[in-house]
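Notebook entry, structure prediction.
Reason for the run: the old model in the group folder had no record of what sequence produced it. Starting over properly, with the input documented here first.
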Amino acid sequence: MKFHVIDLIHKKRSGKRLNKEEIHSFISGYTWGTIPDYQMAAFLMAVYFQGMDFQETTNLTQAMMHSGTMIRLADIKKPKIDKHSTGGIGDKVSLVLAPLVASCGVCVPMISGRGLGHTGGTLDKLESIPGMRTHLSIKEFKKQLTKIGVAMIGQTAEIAPADKKMYALRDVTATVDSIPLIAASIMSKKLAEGLDGLVLDVKFGSGAFMNDFEDAEELAETMIQIGKRTRVKVVALLTDMNNPLGEYIGNSLEIIEAIETLKNRGPEDLMELTIALGELMLEIAGIEGGSKILERKIMSGEALHKFKEIISHQGGDLRIIEDYSRLPVAKNKVRILAPKAGYIHIIDNFKIGMLLVKLGGGRLTKEDTIDPSCGFRIYKKIGDVVKKRECIGEILCDHNTKARVVAEELNNVFTIRKKLCRPKRLIREIIY
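New structure, fully documented this time:
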């Protein structure tokens, strides 16, 4: 190494600014194993407490991005636009959005993640489709993008390996919720895809990593600044995650809801957010038509056909499109009844996510296996009126003991009061 590791840690711990060469040297050393985990852990904690300015965060992003293979998609002449969500409860937008935008002539190279803790992951949902492959090599990824204009895969070992190592360490050193570290983690993977543009869905509220709107706004602006410094157009939507998105929560259940949305039978909030994000992706791509062209692609069945192409090319069972019984869905249902009449004032989204883990539908560590068949259906949103003993939710789980235990806790997720409550606005702000 050109620089002494301890000096760099001390410099950041003291609140001083690291330059580009120092950051690149540190990340390179960690990627190649010359810097051990304990020194990276000290560095992460120093960043957690002292922060980083926009330029430092950009340099960190670029160092992580260049720690592995950069995907080159210049031979694909379509605009290459992706979307990233910071994660939430019932967030199956990518499953609808990727085929929808691809059906409009945009190349969508979507590299997604797995669920961890209270939030679900797109890969876990896709893998509930029998036979579905999400581990594609970069060569297979590029071939599919060339052929059908869209692919939905997981992070490969070659893409931003520094991020993979650092994220695992952040998870066990209580340094996950640092805005510079979150921004660099997200953007290093996305910029390694060879994108022309990126649309961000940055969530805030009880079901998001960022509880406060102001923190979500700061994270969005940080990632937009990174985009500007790397000459990639980035736009962000700030969206409310105090309600679950859609009605269904759980891996195979969300696949069904996504397909229903592509058949123009989806819930209103899921459609609203999908169209809003799709409009921004088309805008960056320079394609006119906005919401009208997106709605037309759904009405005509072209978006659903594109989803079928994704499933077919990645080895999944196409029959699930018309026969949901081919998906692993629990048969046993337990109803949750409102204890009193009134208005829904609060839904504890974080608790819903953790109860899904308790059912077996999520994971606390990356090594945990999940049950794709279980989940919830939530019938009410904040602001809705309910009658006493009206069904406000359902648990789908074939493990009776787990279902009974979770049923007692799920009732406490809803706060019902007699006072009138206004519905939450889903989309709070657009930031360019």
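Summary: The longest strand covers residues 197-204.
The old model has been moved to the deprecated folder.
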